[in-house]
Amino acid sequence: MPGGHTRTSMTPKAAVDKSWELVQSKTFTKWVNARLSEHSLAPLSNVCTDFSDGTALVNLLQIISDTSLGRYNRNPRMRIQKIENVNLSLDFIRSRKINLTNIGAEDIVDSNHKLILGMIWTIILRFTIEDINEEGLSAMDGLLLWCQRKTAPYKEVDVQNFSYSWQDGLAFCALIHRHRPDLLDYHALDKRDARGNTALAFEVAERYLGIPQLLDVEDVCDTAKPDDRSVMTYVAQYFHAFSSLSRAETAGRRVGKFTDVMQSVYDMQHDYEARVAKLIAQIGEKQAKWRSATFEPVYSSARAHSTAFNSYKATTKREWTHEKVELDTLLGNIQTKRVTYNLAPFAPRAGLTPKDLEATWNELAAAEVRHRKTINQYIRESRDALQRRYGSEANGIQAVLNSISNSLATLGGELDDQLATVHGLISKARPLEAALQRLGDLEKQCADANIDEHDYTVYSVSDLEYDTEMMRKALDKKARFIENQSAVRNMTNLTPAQLEEFEATFRYFDRDDTNVLNDSEFRAALDSLGHSFTDDEFGALYDQLSCGSEYISFEVYIRFMVELTEDQTTPEQLLQSFRVIASDKDYVTQEDLRLSELSPSSISYLARAMPKSELADDGYDYLAYLRDVFQ
Questions:
Q1: Would you say 298 and 448 are in contact if contact means Cβ atoms under 8 Å apart?
Q2: Pairwise CA distance, residues 347 & 276, whole Å
Q3: Separation of CA 531 from chain center
Q4: Read out DSSP for 301-353?
Q5: In terms of Cα–Cα distance, which of 420, 563, 416 is closest to 498?
Q6: Helices and strands, counts by H and E, the chain
Q7: Does residue 494 register a pLDDT over 80?
Q8: pLDDT-derived band at 491, boundaries 50, 70, 90
Q9: CB 3.0 to 4.6 Å from 186: which of 145, 177, 398, 412, for a disulfide?
Q10: Distance between CA atoms of residues 433 and 461, nearest Å
Q11: 330 exposure class (CB count in 10 Å sphere: 0-12, 13-18, 19+)
């Protein structure tokens, strides 16, 4: 079947022809649109049809040649106007010695795809590829050699043409990586992913290199033989982009290197002046602060200034010293660098020169000496003032104690007057507590100031606290004594010895010096004086005398003892009682007293009060005791 054979042999050829035409049409349309966009002109849909009125062709030629073609029909409606526009363009092309074969204005107006694509390819060759030169080879051969040289380090890439050699996308990626390795990592590519590699190269080239994507991925990867003109047109964009980049980079590196040097020098100079200005300002502020410093006439203030100055020496001054050394080094580096690049020596602005900095540094040293001297002077003065205050307070307290002691020692006159005087002395002594508190605070301040010995007094806080407590007790005892004496002064029916015995007994059992007796103390006192009561009798008696309180005062006690002695007790009765206890002996023992059921405290008192008997080692002479009591 010849007919069938003819169809199977002709159909693939037609498909191939249609394929290259379609690819070129897309590629050349994108190339033209890229040029038109440079002047913000509307893009074309298809160069094979959109060149028909000649306006787009005129615009393209004016842009790529940077030359005006003169007047033309901007809105042609008639065929003749369109032909005039196209002829204007063709004449311009031929005037540039570009050979156009077998194409006329009617072919373009009538949208002859094949001839239009050929014309555009001729334009691309003349304005994009022809000026490529690589080692003496120009145009297509020069572009191919450039691609081979640039991709030589990549073993997976072997550029032999502008068709099959680009199908795996690696050649595109290699060109980008060779010139801009920061844009993609060639070595991380999956070398088997042709579509992925091609798409990546197209995307990176357009986004970062400004190369319009003239090809689609399927135009390269999904066709049996990529169109060489389309590929060459696209690859030429890489050459121009990287050539411009190379020239710009070379010039940029030269200018950049010089700029970097100058910027570095400027930054160093600016840094030097800024740091010198800051250091000088800080030193000035510190000196001004020292000059305006006020010193209170107390040690803590002077000590605080000293501590602050020592802290400054250990921190701020060391930081400034380090900074000054760094500045000297920086200035030396600046001058060295300027000499290296044949630049004039650096001269810092007035006020920021090395001499200015050195002068400020010397002024700082002198200010430090003055400030330290001032601090030391105030420390000495404040320590002396502190000692004077301590001495004045301590001596004042001792003077009050001496005055009270003298007044107490010379106390005389009527009992009421004496009691009034003692109460006045007690009132005079009350402020001593606050004075001792102030003295304690001063002593602590002296300790903080390392004052161990005082030049203006010999009295310590502990000495004066002890003396004050002793004086207070003496005044209290004196007041109670006078009050007790007032209570017994009109009791004349008893002998002074009896009254003294009653008083001595009260004081003996008033062990806490409160001038009152509780029930147990009162009963012991009665027992020691030979007055025994049953529990019921004593309870009723104590309730009567204490009036329901827990204590019996000295006055109540002494009145009761007087009444008891006057009404019930005579020397003869006591003598008879002691004889009964002693079993008619002239002495009594502690055993005898215990057998008489006297309380232990009464026995202890009698053993202390009665003299020892000469008749027995363990005996007491109650006869002599009674004679002394009742004489």
A1: no
A2: 13
A3: 84
A4: HHHHHHHHHHHHHHTHHHHHHHHHHHHHHHHHHHHHHHHHTTPPPP-PPTT-S
A5: 563
A6: 25, 6
A7: no
A8: low
A9: 177
A10: 11
A11: middle
493 and 562 in contact (C-beta within 8 Å)? yes
In angstroms, how far is CA 233 from the centroid of its own chain? 64
State the DSSP string of 265-276. HHHHHHHHHHHH
Q: Which two tokens stand for residue 215?
A: 């090809």
* Phi, psi angles (nearest 5°) of residue 597: 65, 30
DSSP assigned state of 225? S
Euclidean distance between CA atoms 58 and 68, whole angstroms: 9
Distance, CA of 506 to CA of 517 (rounded, Å): 8
Residue 82 contacts residue 56 (beta carbons within 8 Å): no
Residues 500-536 as b/e (b if ≥16 CB within 10 A, e otherwise) read ebbbebbbbbbeeeebbbbeebbbbbbbbbbbbeeee
Question: For the CA atoms of the chain, what is the radius of gyration?
Answer: 64
Q: How many CA atoms lie within 13 A of 513 on its CB side?
A: 10
- Amino acid, res. 44: L
d(CA 331, CA 270): 11
Reduced to 3 states, what is the DSSP secondary structure of residue 84? helix
Please give the full DSSP string across 374-422, using - where no structure is assigned.
HHHHHHHHHHHHHHHHHHHHHHHHHHHHHHHHHHHHT--S-HHHHHHHH
Q: What pLDDT, in 10s, does the model give residues 419-464?
A: 888 889 899 889 999 999 999 998 998 888 888 888 899 999 999 9
* pLDDT grade for 610, boundaries at 50, 70 and 90: very high
Partners of 620 in the β-ladder: 588, 612
CA angle 29/35/38 to nearest 5° reads 140
Q: Smallest Cα–Cα separation from 442: which of 431, 428, 457, 429?
A: 457
pLDDT tens digits, 190-234: 999 999 999 999 999 999 999 999 999 999 999 989 999 999 999
| Contact (CB, 8 A) for 235 and 226 | no
Give the CA dihedral 81, 85, 87, 88, nearest 10 degrees: 130
d(CA 599, CA 579): 19
